[in-house]
Specification:
It is built from twelve helices and two strands. The chain has about 575 residues and is mainly alpha-helical. Strand 1 and strand 2 form a beta hairpin. Helix 8 runs parallel beside helix 12. The longest helix is centred in the middle third of the chain and has 152 residues. One of its GO terms (cellular component) is ciliary transition zone.
């Protein structure tokens, strides 16, 4: 039966580690290589095939090493035989010298006969040994002649094997070139790896050829010692048979490789067609992708422009909102005097409306009670029809009117609560105006705190330092104005102040119109004296209003500082975002 090649077992072997295996296992693996005639290469990776070639080369190297060891053993045995022959010849010469000495000496015949008998016995024994050794030498000579003939035959066989090995190497090189072509088609990385592996295999084959040449030279040198090569010839015959089987196997494999190469050529053509089709598809897809990318880039640029425009619009809206807040605060300051009276008047109006609504509710409740009594009377009498429908409609209308009245009363209460809240807020504002310089101290504390926090580079702090200096100047001006107002109040001279549009400082109305200064001063003094005499509460309220205006201005200063800082930080964040977007 043909042996089955065990791919998994051979692939698990490591070529350098084969020398550590036992001889029986190595012989079994070699027999498996030689005995297999049909190889299933289809579906096998090229790396696996190259690994199997490496294993086979390692096995050949092991067998070559074993041949060299047997040659060295034969050389040692021949040297020992030569040494024994030399020793025997030396003994024979020594005995002949003894005979000559005994014959020349003057001894008695009896002693001489005894000695001669002993010497004859020794000679006979030594001659028998010589005859045996000569027979051995003759047999060894005949064996040498036979070995010489067998060596000649082996040389001829080795030359034939060399030719076959060369043919095998040529076929391997051809297959390697074809495999390289295939690898070039299917991948550059695999081609580079397989090329390196093939180069290493070529180097190993060259080393094997060199070793074979060395073995040939050794065989030529050992032709004189032919007796010692019996085991070598037997092993060489076995190797020859194995190599013949291997060559037959290689021939079969070459035929199979030719078939596989034809199949691979057809596959290559089909793969090239697929590759061309894929190139066309990729080209079309790249064109579509370029169009999509161009559209996307245009949309991105449009979005960037839109974002820039929206940011500009947002900045403008924020600026407008800031200006509107400023104007609203100025308007609130102007309306603080009139708002209290208006609120009191509104409260009185609401009280009147509430009283009217309460009267209406009482009237409607009375009418409802009357209608209910009438309805009950009609039910007791058992009358039905139009009267009942009329009464039901009147009852529904009365209920609806009552509900409307209740809702109006509830809304009036809610409005009263809101007005009360507004009155409390105004009273709180008036109390805060009477607090003195608390706002200025808090403003100074805020300025110092912001200065302490904003210790950064001089280049970044230039706009902030200018803003802080400007605010300090404003605070100083306000303090001076506050002192002037207090002095004027102590002296009894009350000036009327107003805030011009676009400014944040109080200006006396006398600066607005210098021509009317004396009359206005007289009118203001007369007015203040009249108020102090007839209505001291209103004069105190005017003083509170001026202090409230000062307090409100202090709050505005703090708010303006915080707003300027927030606007500056937002502007820097926008600049950073624009830089990142660009």
């Amino acid at each position: 039966m043909e042996a089955i090649f065990e791919w998994d077992r051979v692939l698990s072997l490591d070529p350098p580690a084969l020398r550590n295996l036992k001889k029986d296992k190595v012989d079994m693996i070699v027999d498996m290589f030689i005995s297999t005639k049909e190889w299933d290469i289809e579906g096998k990776a090229p790396n696996k095939i190259i690994h199997i070639f490496k294993v086979f080369q390692a096995l050949l190297q092991i067998k070559n090493y074993e041949v060299c060891e047997t040659q060295s053993l034969l050389e040692k045995v021949g040297e020992e035989q030569v040494k024994t022959e030399v020793k025997l010849l030396a003994k024979v010469e020594m005995l002949e010298q003894r005979l000559q000495r005994y014959s020349a000496a003057e001894r008695s015949q009896h002693v001489a006969d005894l000695e001669t008998d002993e010497l004859k016995e020794q000679l006979e024994s030594e001659q028998a040994e010589l005859i045996k050794s000569i027979g051995k030498i003759d047999r060894e000579k005949s064996k040498r002649k036979q070995l010489a003939r067998e060596l000649q035959e082996a040389d001829t066989k080795i030359s034939m094997l060399k030719q076959e090995v060369r043919q095998y190497e040529q076929t391997i090189s051809e297959t390697e070139e074809e495999v390289k072509k295939l690898f070039r088609i299917y991948g550059d990385d695999l081609n580079a790896k397989s090329g390196q592996l093939l180069k290493s295999n070529k180097k190993e084959l060259e080393e094997c050829s060199d070793k074979l040449q060395e073995t040939e030279s050794k065989n030529k040198e050992l032709q004189n010692d032919k007796v010692r090569l019996i085991n070598l010839l037997q092993e060489s015959e076995m190797e020859r048979e194995r190599i013949i089987l291997k060559l037959n196997y290689v021939k079969g494999q070459i035929l199979e490789t030719d078939q596989t190469l034809d199949w691979l050529r057809t596959e290559k053509d089909a793969a090239e067609d697929k590759f061309r089709n894929l190139k066309k598809d990729i080209y079309s897809m790249t064109e579509k992708f370029d169009e999509i990318a161009a559209d996307a880039s245009e949309r991105v640029q449009e979005c960037k422009k839109m974002l820039h425009e929206k940011e500009h619009v947002i900045f403008e809206q924020q600026r407008i909102i800031f200006e509107l807040k400023h104007d609203l605060q100025l308007a609130k300051i102007d309306l603080t005097d009139s708002s209290v009276g208006v609120l009191h008047q509104a409260i009185e109006d609401r009280d009147k409306t509430i009283d009217v609504l309460c009267e209406k509710v009482e009237h409607y409740t009375k009418r409802i009670e009357k209608n209910v009594q009438a309805f009950e009377q009609q039910e007791t009498k058992g009358k039905k029809g139009k009267v009942i429908c009329f009464l039901e409609s009147q009852l529904k209308d009365a209920e609806q009117r009552a509900n409307n009245a209740e809702q109006a009363l509830y809304q009036a209460k809610v409005m009263i609560k809101e007005k009360n809240k507004e009155v409390w807020k105004v009273s709180d504002i008036l109390r805060n105006y009477t607090a003195g310089t608390y706002g200025l101290n808090s403003a100074f504390k805020d300025l110092e705190r912001w200065k302490h926090k904003m210790k950064v580079k001089a280049s970044d702090m230039e706009p902030l330092t200018t803003a802080f200096n400007h605010l300090e100047m404003r605070v100083k001006d306000l303090m001076e104005e506050n002192l002037d107002v207090k002095n004027m109040q102590k002296e009894g001279h009350a000036k009327e102040f107003y805030i011009p549009k676009g400014h944040r400082r109080l200006k006396p109305k006398e600066e607005d119109d210098k021509t009317e200064q004396p009359t206005r001063d007289l009118g203001a003094r007369h007015k203040t004296k009249h108020l102090e005499r007839h209505n001291p509460a209103e004069s105190q309220l005017d003083k509170d209003v001026t202090e409230e205006q000062e307090k409100h201005l202090k709050v505005k200063i703090r708010d303006s500082v915080q707003e300027t800082l927030t606007l500056e930080s937002k502007r820097r964040i926008r600049q950073m975002n624009v830089q990142q977007m660009s």
